[in-house]
């Protein structure tokens, strides 16, 4: 069955450009973003990997690790890294999984079980469903799943925005409204009663309807 938000992210042990990792152990007490690519030396993915390298400090501020995946061997990744730096000015500064046996792609439902057990001979078109983003929390649960077509570069600024929202919910029991940005008002989640909300938010809230309780974004 396909993975859903709230499922435990499948654990795996695999080789990367920074050596072998055990996924759950690697995540530790951090948040993590796993983003996948159908094949090395593809143009859209090249731009994405470089941009993610430039954003790494922003993810680190949020206690979030970055992990890339492409369905090719690590040796190919190491050659691709040079192209990525040439094209974007940024070489990947995070591990990139070599999923040449398709194990992670299958475990995360990005390829069917019958897809074979080798990346050898497979094209980007064969692997076009391997264009996902998974955000995983410190509890190893999946918090976000996004799936993109091959021709559309992903918006990783949006991933940062979502992580900000997820962390506000986890730490302060608030949700974020449509098109929310850092510093804007947030909404007390419905599971918090008015009685408990008065303790958490003693300055009160703005309520255009009884179930919409807006408060300033918590600072920490």
Structure description:
The chain is an alpha+beta fold. It has two domains: 13-152, Glutaredoxin (3-Layer(aba) Sandwich), CATH 3.40.30.10; 173-215, Antioxidant, Horf6, Chain A, domain2 (Antioxidant, Horf6, Chain A, domain 2, 2-Layer Sandwich). It is built from six helices and eleven strands. The protein has helices at residues 23-27, 43-61, 74-88, 103-107, 156-172, 194-200, and strands at residues 13-14, 21-22, 31-37, 64-70, 96-98, 132-136, 142-147, 174-175, 186-188, 206-209, 212-215. Strands 5-4-3-6-7 form a five-stranded mixed β-sheet. A four-stranded antiparallel β-sheet has the order 8-9-11-10. Strands 1-2 form a two-stranded antiparallel sheet. Strand 4, helix 3 and strand 5 form a beta-alpha-beta unit. The protein starts with 12 loop residues before the first strand and ends in a 5-residue tail after the last strand. The model has no long low-confidence stretch (mean pLDDT 96).
Give the overall shape, derived from the CA principal axes.
elongated
What is the second-level CATH architecture of the largest domain?
3-Layer(aba) Sandwich
* Assigned CATH class of the largest domain: Alpha Beta
Give the proportion of residues in helices: 25-40%
């Amino acid at each position: 069955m396909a993975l859903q938000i709230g499922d435990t992210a499948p654990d795996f042990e695999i080789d990367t450009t920074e050596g072998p990792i055990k996924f759950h152990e690697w995540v530790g007490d951090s948040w993590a973003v796993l983003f996948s690519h159908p094949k090395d030396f593809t143009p859209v993915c090249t731009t994405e990997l470089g941009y993610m390298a430039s954003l790494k400090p922003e993810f680190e501020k949020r206690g979030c690790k970055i992990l890339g995946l492409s369905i090719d061997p690590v040796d190919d990744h190491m050659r691709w890294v040079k192209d990525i730096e040439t094209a974007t000015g940024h070489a990947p500064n995070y591990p990139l999984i070599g999923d040449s046996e398709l194990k992670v792609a299958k475990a995360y439902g990005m390829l069917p079980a019958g897809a074979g057990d080798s990346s050898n001979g497979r094209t980007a078109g064969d692997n076009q469903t391997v264009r996902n983003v998974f955000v995983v929390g410190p509890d190893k649960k999946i918090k976000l799943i996004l799936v993109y077509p091959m021709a559309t570069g992903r918006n990783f600024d949006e991933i940062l925005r979502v992580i900000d929202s997820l962390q506000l919910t986890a730490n302060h029991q608030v949700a974020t409204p449509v098109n929310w940005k850092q510093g804007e008002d947030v909404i007390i989640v419905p599971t918090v009663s008015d009685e408990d909300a008065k303790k958490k938010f003693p300055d009160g809230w703005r309520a255009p309807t009884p179930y919409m309780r807006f408060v300033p974004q918590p600072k920490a």
